[in-house]
Write a structure and sequence with these properties.
mainly alpha, single chain
């Protein structure tokens, strides 16, 4: 099914498209990480935080500060693994769609 960016699928669902995008980006990065044969010291951290992001996306309305914390931990854990850069960028872009958390001033 082809659709333009920003359009919602016509499925009768009223799910937030940002949550759908987050779920898709997290699933992609989890698959890419699972397929990576190399082991690295912080792999378990990345896997745990991706699981946390997936759970938040499944819950519907994730907390923005928690999303950003998980993103930072994932980036720190896999930031030097160039094969995962596109997937990490996708997760970052999905998190950015939620905007800034209130009271952070950033």
């Amino acid at each position: 099914m082809l659709r333009s960016l920003g359009q919602r699928p016509v499925t009768g669902s009223d799910e937030d498209p940002r949550v759908t995008g987050l779920r898709t980006a997290v699933a992609r990065l989890r698959r890419e990480l699972a397929a990576l044969p190399a082991d690295f010291p912080d792999r378990a951290i990345a896997e745990d935080e991706l699981a946390a992001l997936a759970a938040m996306a499944a819950g519907g309305a994730p907390e923005i500060p928690r999303l950003r914390r998980s993103l930072l931990l994932i980036a720190g854990a896999i930031g030097s693994v160039s094969a995962l850069a596109p997937g990490l960028t996708g997760v970052r872009e999905a998190v950015d769609l939620f905007g800034e958390s209130p009271g952070t001033g950033t």
